[in-house]
Amino acid sequence: MNISADTVPDKHDAKDMGLKSASSRNLYLALIHYPVVNKKGETIASAVTNLDLHDIARAARTYAVSSFYVVTPLEDQQLLVKKLILHWTEGGGGRYNPARRDALETVRIADSIEKVQADIRKERKKEPRMIVTSAKAYSGSLSFPAFRRILQDDRPCLLVFGTAWGISSDFISAADHILEPVKGNSDYNHLSVRSAVSVILDRLLGDREIV
Amino acid sequence: MNISADTVPDKHDAKDMGLKSASSRNLYLALIHYPVVNKKGETIASAVTNLDLHDIARAARTYAVSSFYVVTPLEDQQLLVKKLILHWTEGGGGRYNPARRDALETVRIADSIEKVQADIRKERKKEPRMIVTSAKAYSGSLSFPAFRRILQDDRPCLLVFGTAWGISSDFISAADHILEPVKGNSDYNHLSVRSAVSVILDRLLGDREIV
Questions:
Q1: Interface test with B, best of A12, A100, A199 (most B CBs within 10 A)
Q2: How many CA atoms lie within 13 A of A38 on its CB side?
Q3: Which residues of B touch A196 (CB under 8 A)?
Q4: Where do the domains of chain A lie, and which CATH numbers do they carry?
Q5: Considering Cα of B189, then B142, then B34, then B56, what sign does the dihedral take?
Q6: How far is A137 from chain B (nearest CA, A)?
Q7: What tens digit of pLDDT does each residue of B113-157 get?
Q8: Residues A5 and B137 sit within 8 Å (Cβ to Cβ)
Q9: Helix (H, G, I), strand (E, B) or coil at A43
Q10: What pLDDT was estimated at residue B16?
Q11: Which tens digit of pLDDT belongs to each residue from A147-172?
Q12: Residue A166: burial class (beta carbons within 10 Å; 0-12, 13-18, 19+)
């Protein structure tokens, strides 16, 4: 078969593109390392996983979300994340791989979700809606179509992902919405957080028309 | 808000579920470590990344694909993958985390794509179609809706993902189809292979009706 690479014709009209851009601009991601639960259900602060930052930053950049916050109260972990970002944005990493630099530039560090909310409030002059994710189904959860609709409002949305065994229940109950879980084609619901972020961004902001 | 977990009502009729099961059963994944290219475009054999196996196995299990082949001609790398699988399927890992055992049970090891094709041919008594993935757009590529349709035929499909800087062009030109690239909401096309697999499985087999 023909394998010459070529440019893909743009299948969208200007109105579609405008709505999609507004949706991307309204979306902020947070990956929290506290308060999350361990296997026994106890609240802990988890360690930052290098590849979470890379994979989620690359997905965030692909779907053009406003920012990706890495949230941890642990100072040594914050320092680690800072070093990693600097290596890829201003150090040797960025010269070696400029695409990775572009991705890591979307990452911000915060020590609590309140700091993230304050940051978004300052930037957008509006209170962000907080939507949490879970692998479990909850009654009254926000559906993907409903989430796509509220993303088109002129208000920022902070979408929160947990690490370890998931976000603590107190944190979940304080959110404005719980997003319905990603259902694949089985009852198995143990995607990695890297996979879950990617699928959810595609469902919210991906090129639906050609899918 | 109410945070009691409950069961999600099944929104699909039997016919839909039958088609989805057939599609999942027809899909086989391969992650190849040779022949792939490095940054300079030279053909190399890449090293296996631990987290690729975990993340892709978990996604493969979520979307109920038939098998996930890890393809490398390097014997030390094959041994490494075997040890990792045994730890999670028969060793301490599986007892600690049975969900991870379920995922890793979908992984098979092969030293070449020809061996993968032979394995599927033996299992299904049919020649598998080979579809390759790329972050680049090619003329005449297979669209996602077209791929979903051929997955409903009674013939296995082998979907191939590359590591490092992607699959070599000779390998690509030998395939039956090249899948159109995942487009997000920007011109950035540098998803990790772990993210790309997850998004593509969701586009092919995910719960579209509620999206």
A1: A199
A2: 8
A3: 198
A4: 14-210 (3.40.1280.10)
A5: positive
A6: 5
A7: 999 999 999 999 999 999 999 999 999 999 999 999 999 998 999
A8: yes
A9: strand
A10: 67
A11: 999 999 989 999 999 999 999 999 99
A12: buried
Q: Which residues lie across from B31 on neighbouring strands?
A: B70, B161
Search chain B and give the residue with CA nearest A174.
B1
> Any chain B CB within 8 A of the CB of A101?
no
Does this model's pTM top 0.90?
yes
pLDDT at A18: 78
Q: Is any Cβ of chain B less than 8 angstroms from the Cβ of A103?
A: yes
Q: Are B160 and B131 in contact (CB under 8 A)?
A: yes
Distance from CA of B210 to the nearest CA of A (A): 7
Residue B67: the pLDDT is: 98
Q: Is A146 on the interface with B (CB under 8 A)?
A: no
Q: How far is B104 from chain A (nearest CA, A)?
A: 12
One DSSP character per residue, chain B reads ----B-PPPP---HHHHHHHHHHHHHEEEEEE-SSEE-TTS-EE-PPPPHHHHHHHHHHHHHTT-SEEEEE---HHHHHHHHHHHHHHHTSHHHHH-HHHHHHHTTEEEESSHHHHHHHHHHHHSSPPEEEE--SS-BTTPBPHHHHHHHHTSSS-EEEEEE-TT-B-HHHHHTSSEEBPPP--SSS-----HHHHHHHHHHHHHS-GGG-
Neighbours of A48 (CB within 10 A): 20
Kindly report which listed range (A119-123, B2-6, B12-16, B104-108) carries the lowest average pLDDT score. Answer: B2-6
**Per-residue pLDDT reduced to its tens digit, A43-60:** 999 999 999 999 999 999
CB spacing of B186 vs A62 below 8 angstroms: yes
**How many angstroms separate the CA of residue B54 from the nearest CA in chain A?**
8
> What's the distance, Cα to Cα, between the start and end of chain B in Å?
23
Give dist(CA A178, CA B161) in Å, integer.
33
B195-205 in b/e burial notation, b at 16+ Cβ within 10 A? bbbbbbbbbbb
